[in-house]
Amino acid sequence: MFQYIPIVLHTYVITKNKLFNININTLFQQLRPIFWRGLLAFIMLNFCNGLTNLDTKIAS
Questions:
Q1: Cα(38)–Cα(47) distance, integer angstroms
Q2: How far are the Cα atoms of 15, 16, 28, 29 from residue 33, in angstroms, in the given order?
Q3: What is the pTM of this model?
Q4: Could you give phi then psi for residue 2, rounded to 5 degrees?
Q5: Angle in degrees, CA 16, 19, 9, rounded to 5
Q6: One digit per residue, pLDDT tens: the chain, 60 residues?
């Protein structure tokens, strides 16, 4: 049983590092468009809300 421990640890470390690197890179690549879309949607939503508020103020 004990002879497998270094192999398991080694593969674990390699996969962890690979996964970590991949996760960090893909996370940033995936988050960037989501972040910008979210920001754009937020701005648009606020803008539309502002317009409707203006409309109601003008109407009243």
A1: 14
A2: 27, 26, 9, 7
A3: 0.40
A4: -70, -25
A5: 15
A6: 577 777 787 888 777 777 777 777 777 777 788 788 888 888 888 887 777 777 777 766
